[in-house]
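Consortium newsletter contribution from the modelling node. Members have asked for a concrete example of what our holo predictions look like. Here is one, prepared for the magnesium ion complex that several groups have been discussing at recent meetings.
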Amino acid sequence: MKIAVTGKGGVGKTTVSAILARLYSQQGRRVLAIDADPDANLAAAIGFPESEVAKIQPLSTLTSLIEERTGARPGAGGGFFKINPSVDDVAERFGVRFENILLLALGTPKPGGSGCYCPENTFIKALVTHLLLRQDEVLILDMEAGIEHLGRGTAKAVNALLVVVEPGHRSLQTAKDIRRLAFEIGISQIFLVANKVRHSKDRDFIVSQLPDFELIGSLPFDWELVEADAQGRSPFPACRAVVGEIEKIKLFLDSRLAING
Ligand SMILES: Nc1ncnc2c1ncn2[C@@H]1O[C@H](COP(=O)(O)OP(=O)(O)OP(=O)(O)O)[C@@H](O)[C@H]1O
Ligand SMILES: [Mg+2]
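And here is the predicted structure:
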């Protein structure tokens, strides 16, 4: 099960990713949580103890490892490097653990995005491809507002691309752009999650603006969640209203995946 979560900045991607990770973990599944946001905060949202959060090493900062694997030192400029570096051991070596969750932070991509041809981005891209093809675990990828970390080669491995939106034109436009890009690279399982919904009008507005999307969840605006975030606490399990809705999303994904086999 490979779930990628995207959407405009601030819509709730990390909240959704974190709660899904906890739900799968509590079910006894092995979870690989990947924080692809340079401003990494997935571990805290999941509820990792601070001592573990402090151990996180964003992969893009591991200059020596990247040099060892690609044959070129990041930032050195020019020269040749391997475009298929060995990455099999990276998750186990550099991931941090909590419950059944192994978490990796990818760090900051070089300017030009992951399409840029340099040792760091090549290393990260090879790693994400490798992780998407691993079996027997639930992978949850918390991305920025886009799908740069996914490419044609990995699109098929993504079972579900969750696009999170909130009531408001900007996040809806981002959702449309993401959907187009996702189709272009061959991701077909694209689902919409409405967040910060205050009343049925918000939900109706989103549905009317995005008629081509399949809406699989509608999460209420929740002051508990605002409070938890302000205090640096995980929304899981305290924010019952939102957690309850994400449980339903999980059930939907589980059954949809089972059907598609
Ligand atoms: N349903 C909700 N009700 C109230 N507040 C929410 C809800 N969902 C998310 N928030 C709040 O909105 C803010 C952004 O949420 P979150 O960090 O999950 O979004 P994000 O899409 O990951 O943001 P970024 O683009 O910065 O990574 C946080 O302060 C979070 O607590
Ligand atoms: Mg986030």
